[in-house]
Amino acid sequence: MAQPDPTRAESKTVKTTCPYCGVGCGVLATLTDTPTGPQVTVKGDPDHPANKGRLCSKGSALAETLSLDGRLLHPTISGAQASWESALSQVASRFKQTIEAHGPDSVAFYVSGQLLTEDYYVANKLMKGFIGSANIDTNSRLCMASSVAGHKRAFGTDTVPGQYEDLEQADLIVLVGSNLAWCHPVLYQRIAAAKSARPAMKIINIDPRRTASSDLADLHLALTPGSDVALFNHLLTTIHEMGAVDSAFVAQHVDGFDAALSAASSGEVQATGLSANELAEFTRAWIGTEKVVTIYSQGVNQSTSGSDKVNAILNCHLATGRIGRPGMGPFSVTGQPNAMGGREVGGLANMMACHLDLENAGHRATVRDFWQAPTLPEAAGLKAVDMFRAVGDGRIKALWVMCTNPVVSMPEADRVKAAIANCDFVVVSDMYGDTDTAKLADIVLPATGWGEKTGTVTNSERCISRQRPFLPAPGTARHDWDVLAEVGRRMGWQAEFAYESPAEILREYATLSGLAAQHGKDFDISALSDLTEVEYDALPPQHWPLTKERRGGRFFADGRFFTPSGRANMLPLHHRAPAKPADATHPFILNTGRIRDQWHTMSRSGLAPRLNQHMAEPYLEIHPTDATTLGLQAADLAEVSSAHGRAILRVLLSDKVKPGAVFAPMHWTSQLSSAGRIDAVVAAEVDPVSGQPESKATPVAITKLPARWYGYAVSRQHPKPKAEYWALARLGDGWQMEFADRHTPEDWRAYAEQLLCTDGCNLQTTEDPAKGLFRLAAHRDGLLEAALFIAPNPVALARSHVNTLLGTEAPAALAGRAGADQPDPGATICACFDVGINTIISAIQQQNLMSVDAIGAALNAGTNCGSCRPELAALLSAAMPRQAAE
Ligand SMILES: Nc1nc2c(c(=O)[nH]1)N[C@H]1C(S)=C(S)[C@@H](COP(=O)(O)OP(=O)(O)OC[C@H]3O[C@@H](n4cnc5c(=O)[nH]c(N)nc54)[C@H](O)[C@@H]3O)O[C@H]1N2
Ligand SMILES: Nc1nc2c(c(=O)[nH]1)N[C@H]1C(S)=C(S)[C@@H](COP(=O)(O)OP(=O)(O)OC[C@H]3O[C@@H](n4cnc5c(=O)[nH]c(N)nc54)[C@H](O)[C@@H]3O)O[C@H]1N2
Ligand code: SF4
Ligand SMILES: [Mo]
User: Fold this and answer.
1) Cβ(298) to ligand 1 under 6 A?
2) What pLDDT, on the 0 to 100 scale, is given for residue 832?
3) How far does the centroid of ligand 2 lie from the alpha carbon of residue 137, in Å?
4) Which of 227, 358, 416, 487 sits at 20 to 30 Å (Cα–Cα) from 645?
5) C-beta separation of 300 from 146 below 8 A
């Protein structure tokens, strides 16, 4: 037998699932013991059906987010370290006392699509089954609620009919309100690969804004924000006019066709703002292509007509019978890794476990008997926006927030912040104790995170995958299911919450799903109800349904739906504009969303230095014409305000947005910026059916922030920012910081010393007061500890060059030269190989590069995860005409 080689490091590889988006990619995480400590590397799992080995930039950088820096290691009570014993006994007793004094509806849980299914199941069982209130809602309310409502209205259940293969088999893919290239990058890559193998495949992108996803599209329809119902109603009437209705399917399997068609025919298509040619091209392609998949996401869901938008899309697929067959169907892509799992366990305030309905007495009886629950609420609980209103006005007196950061991600976020701050008793479970929400809690409970947790998640195509641990829990951090179960026991339900493992929870849940199926529901995973611990550990990715008779596959091709009649519903729908139009005081419409390399409120992705280089500041995308009218130039700072709050953002001039529309990312927090929390500005208008807020259309006013000076700094220590505008981003060995203010400090040197904590450093400064210039280099033991550059205009500087000098023997003369003589690689486009935009543009020009692969060969850019390939393609096409002309 071979002896272990003592010179070789021990390593083990674990198959797990990416904790970010709803694509649900399989990840191989390898843990190696090295002399300097354990090291983790990740790569895509070639055997996982979602990604077949691919990963995007965020997935590829997962190992960089595992540092314990900033992790919460112990519970805290009022900010002081506490034992689990005292924290949990307070949580249980405060919730019990509040319920005794004010009834079950005086308490609430606000949870997350990033919980694992097992965590989610226990949270839902505790609140709905035992506390006896339906006041449990989830951040999926901000995300998937309109899709859930649309599916239920049309199909009788919240069912995604298709699977990812359909995207490769389709001849036409329509992306509606989905920036797939940045938000579901591996699905985008799968589509891009299919299109390149089969160029006849067409892609249409429907988004008021041009995005990275538009680059692959044959047609981009920049419709008026919020006008999707008008567009799909027009499609439905054209389907009818062209004789493309599948009359047999409709006659046998669909109700409501005539009413839907008549409502659609009321001629509202001008609301889309699209030209007759654009409309004709769209309807011709959609109607003329049988294999069409309509993918939709937050441009559809996050709207006061979100549910109607979903049904307008479903109407067209039902009318043509294009549903549930290979290469065709509507496809709602989920955002979070377990958004789908949360919908399945009944995490929303208006749902019960296993797609059963709270309002249905028979369904309630089944669940009550199964759980041996004392009572079950008979009506929906408060949905997220209303829940925080109830926290604000004192109806809810005890709140447990788990795995989500509502002070950043809820609309009217300042109001939510005040509500949480003033609530009698707030518990937050998070991996980090200093998120904007955790900071306001009475008790913060340390949760295990990705790499430490164990359980299951369900992705956008109903595939259940395991997240498996490969790292120990840091400090005393505990799994969310374990903490919830212990609180359940401490509240008096010992037997009902006596779980010892996630496998045990999944078994119980799978058994309940078998009972739900007897009520004619779709979600049936009863084949998992007797999994052993060993089988649970080995569970391969599998699509539900999972029963003795059936494993995975599509729904609805057979025309059997889950409504009482077994027939699908088409709905009569009318266009409604967003709740609040622009007016004289708030003349611009603010659209918000995601950037490629950050995940939500950045608590994890913000830890990976390379992910911070794509876009390092909160910004406002604004059309150059509007900018000129407002006196704004590139890199100025803009103050964006609504009736609810304000933000300060860096101006990014772009003709990707139309005049009158602006776009800002949702990611920045108060930890990382002075005023980048954009949800402070976003109005909390909700869809009347789903309760989902309209995060994409708030009227705002924009003015220039009249800064007197602008600054850029790098520092090995966490800077202590004091300026009207600042934004921090983590580097490999320190921090970078942008800042600006309208008041000039009296003494720049004193200001810099305080900002950058340069005690004991050797300081070198240069100053030109007449020109408003100041520069400082701080060395400690001969190594650059910090550098600062102040100018009267946005600082022009080779930032990535300066960043690399941190911690080196950079010359003290840096303070004079500012590295401005170095070529600036510009914003990072390829995060894997750290290649900047300027480097790419100059290589395209100088080496006459003609393809994305040629850029890869020259610079490596785009050759690893591929997330930047759409941007590389866009840079190429921008350069091509000029090359051709030269
Ligand atoms: N990089 C990254 N990826 C992520 C996430 C992340 O934080 N970062 N989060 C994940 C989550 S939870 C989610 S929910 C998904 C979201 O994924 P997406 O929905 O693709 O992302 P968004 O950027 O929120 O919005 C999509 C697009 O909707 C457009 N839009 C705005 N208004 C309208 C309209 O009225 N009609 C139409 N047709 N379009 C409109 C916007 O311009 C935007 O380009 O991303 C997931 N993936
Ligand atoms: N303006 C605007 N606002 C939006 C959106 C938008 O498009 N525009 N999109 C909305 C959408 S779709 C979504 S999904 C939300 C997302 O918004 P949030 O859910 O608020 O964002 P995250 O940063 O993902 O928050 C997750 C938190 O859980 C912590 N965490 C991570 N893993 C664990 C764990 O295992 N256990 C526990 N207990 N904690 C953990 C993280 O540190 C982090 O603090 O934002 C919504 N808000
Ligand atoms: S596409 Fe990227 S973020 Fe989404 S699951 Fe895959 S690797 Fe993770
Ligand atoms: Mo989401």
Assistant:
1) yes
2) 82
3) 13
4) 227
5) yes
Percent of the chain with pLDDT over 70: 97
CATH annotation of 145-332:
3.40.228.10
Reply yes or no on whether the pLDDT at 822 is more than 60.
Answer: no
Per-residue pLDDT at 4 = 43
Q: What class is the 10-65 domain? A: alpha beta
With 90 as the cut, is the pLDDT of residue 578 above it? yes
Integer Cα distance of 655 and 441 in angstroms: 42
Q: Residue 585 above 50 pLDDT?
A: yes
Whether ligand 1 lies within 6 angstroms of the CB of 232 is answered as: no
> What number is the average pLDDT over the span 20-47?
95
What percentage of the chain reaches a pLDDT higher than 90?
87
DSSP character at residue 272: G
The tokens for 633 are 């130039």
Q: Write the DSSP symbol of residue 125.
A: I
Give ranges for CATH 1.10.10.1100 in the chain: 828-885
Burial of residue 877, with CB atoms counted within 10 A of its CB: 0-12 exposed, 13-18 middle, 19 or more buried: exposed
Domain 828-885 has CATH 1.10.10.1100: yes
Residues of the chain within CATH 3.40.228.10 domain(s) are: 145-332
Name the residue type at position 409: S
Looking at every residue in the chain, the average pLDDT score rounds to: 94
Q: What is the pTM of this model?
A: 0.95
183 vs 166: CA distance, rounded Å: 19
Distance 139 CA to ligand 2 centre (A): 7
Measured in Å, residue 46 CA sits from the centre of ligand 1 at 27
**How close is the Cα of 597 to the center of ligand 3, in Å?**
11
Domain with CATH 3.40.50.740 in the chain: 76-142+338-543
Q: Where are the alpha helices (DSSP H) in 156-184?
A: 165-169, 180-183
Q: Tell me which ligand sits closest to the C-alpha of residue 867.
A: 3
76-142+338-543 CATH pick, 3.40.50.360, 3.40.50.740, 1.10.390.10, 3.40.640.10 = 3.40.50.740
- pLDDT single digits (tens) 61-85: 999 999 998 999 999 999 999 999 9
Nearest CA to ligand 1 atom 3: 183
Bridge partners (DSSP) of residue 713 are 737, 788
Residues 601 and 667: beta-carbon distance below 8 Å: yes
pLDDT in tens, 239-272: 999 999 999 999 999 999 999 999 999 989 999 9
Domain 588-704 has CATH 2.40.40.20: yes
| Token pair recorded at residue 55 | 């990963």
Which atom of ligand 2 approaches the CA of 603 most closely? 42
pLDDT digits (tens, 9 = 90+) for 364-405: 999 999 999 998 999 999 999 999 999 999 999 999 999 999
Ligand 1 proximity of 211 Cβ (cutoff 6 Å):
yes
Instruction: For residue 574, count other CB atoms closer than 10 A to its CB.
Output: 14
Residue nearest to atom 25 of ligand 2 (CA): 404
Residue 216, ligand 2, Cβ within 6 A:
no
